[in-house]
Design goal:
By secondary structure, the protein is mostly helical. It has three domains: about 70 residues, Multidrug-efflux Transporter Regulator, Chain: A, Domain 2 (Orthogonal Bundle); about 45 residues; about 190 residues, no CATH class. The chain has 15 helices and three strands.
C-alpha cells in the first residue's frame, strides 16, 4: 500500500500485532485517531497510524500512563522531557524495591521475628533528614563536649556513614545494621568511654612527650603472635606483655607497677569490644571503603595475657 492508503482497524491490527480491541481502546481515548470513516461508518487510519501505535506500545512497555502517551503522540508534550521525568520517577521506585529486597533478604537470612522485621523496615526507609538526625545524635553522644570540633573532625568523618543515593542491597543491609547499633545505648556508652579514654591518654602523652597510640603498639606487637598462634598464657607471650606494659607506663608517666598494669588491662578490655570492629566493618560497606582490619582479636589476646600475669 502507498502512503495515501487507508487501513481498516483489522488491517492495522495485522500490521502492528495489536488486537482490534486494543486499537479501538486507544482510538476512543484520542491517542491514535482515525483519519476517516467508510460509508458504513467503519474507522480508517492512514499510514502514520502504524508508527504511532508502535510508539504507543513502546511507551506503555516503559510504564508511561495513557494521558502522557496521548500528549506525546499528539506532540503536545516533548518526549525527552517526558522520558527524563519518568526515568527519575522510575529511579525512585527502583530504590524502594532495593530497600524492600534488602530487608526481605535480611529477614530470610537472619530469621528475624516480626518485631525485628518491622524495625528493620523502618530503619531502611528513613528519609534523608531522619538519617542525618540519627547519625548526628550518635556522633554527638560519642564526641560531644570532649574538645574542640577540629580535634575530632577526622574521627567524626571516619565514623560517619554516607549511604549512596542509589545503594546496593548490601549497603542497605549494612545501613540498617549500623542504625540498630547506633541506637543501642549500651554501644553508645561503650564508644563514649573509648573516646574519653583516648582523650585522657592523649593528654598524658602530650605531657610526657610524643608516644605511639596503644592501638598501633598492640597491632605491631600482638599481631604476629596472634598469627603464629602463640598462647597468651605461655612464656612466649612474656616479652610482648612486658613491652605493652612498659609502653603504657610511659604513657601514664608512672612506673610499670601493678596499678599501671591494672589501668592497661582496663583500657584493653574497653577497646576489645567486638562491636567496635563490627561498626568499622559496617561503615566500610556503606561508604564503599576497603574492608578494615579486625582489631578485637588482638586486644582480647592482650587483655588475657595481661590478666593471666596479674593473677595472684
Amino acid at each position: 500500500m502507498d502512503g495515501d492508503a487507508l487501513y481498516s482497524i483489522g488491517e492495522l491490527a495485522r500490521r502492528t500485532g495489536l488486537t482490534v480491541k486494543t486499537i479501538r481502546f486507544y482510538s476512543d481515548r484520542g491517542i491514535v485517531v482515525p483519519t476517516d470513516r467508510s460509508p458504513a461508518g467503519h474507522r480508517r487510519y492512514d499510514g502514520g497510524a502504524v508508527a504511532r501505535l508502535e510508539l504507543v506500545r513502546t511507551l506503555r512497555a516503559l510504564g508511561l500512563d495513557l494521558s502522557t502517551i496521548r500528549g506525546v503522540v499528539n506532540r503536545e508534550l516533548p518526549l525527552p522531557e517526558v522520558a527524563a521525568r519518568h526515568a527519575e520517577a522510575l529511579a525512585g521506585r527502583i530504590r524502594v524495591l532495593r530497600l524492600r529486597h534488602a530487608v526481605l533478604t535480611a529477614v530470610a537470612e537472619q530469621g528475624l521475628t516480626a518485631e525485628e522485621t518491622e524495625l528493620m523496615h523502618e530503619l531502611a526507609q528513613l528519609p534523608e533528614d531522619e538519617r542525618r538526625r540519627l547519625i548526628g545524635d550518635f556522633l554527638d553522644a560519642v564526641f560531644g563536649g570532649l574538645g574542640a570540633d577540629s580535634a575530632f573532625a577526622g574521627a567524626r568523618r571516619s565514623m560517619t556513614p554516607e549511604l549512596p543515593e542509589d545503594p546496593e542491597a548490601e549497603q542497605v543491609r549494612a545501613w540498617v545494621a549500623w542504625a540498630e547499633l547506633a541506637r543501642d545505648r549500651d554501644f553508645r556508652a561503650a564508644v563514649r568511654r573509648m573516646a574519653e579514654e583516648q582523650v585522657a591518654e592523649q593528654a598524658r602523652a602530650d605531657a610526657v612527650g610524643p608516644r605511639r597510640g596503644l592501638v598501633a603498639v598492640v597491632r605491631d606487637r600482638v599481631g604476629p603472635a596472634l598469627a603464629e598462634g602463640v598462647d597468651p598464657a605461655s612464656r612466649r607471650a612474656d616479652p610482648i606483655v612486658a613491652g605493652l606494659a612498659a609502653h603504657y607506663a610511659r604513657v601514664l608517666g608512672r612506673p610499670d607497677d601493678v596499678e599501671s598494669r591494672r589501668l592497661l588491662l582496663a583500657r584493653l578490655d574497653s577497646v576489645s569490644d567486638p562491636r567496635r570492629d563490627r561498626h568499622a566493618q559496617l561503615l566500610a560497606v556503606i561508604n564503599g571503603w576497603p574492608a578494615p582490619e579486625r582489631l578485637a582479636p588482638a586486644f582480647v589476646w592482650s587483655a588475657r595475657a595481661v590478666r593471666v600475669r596479674m593473677a595472684p
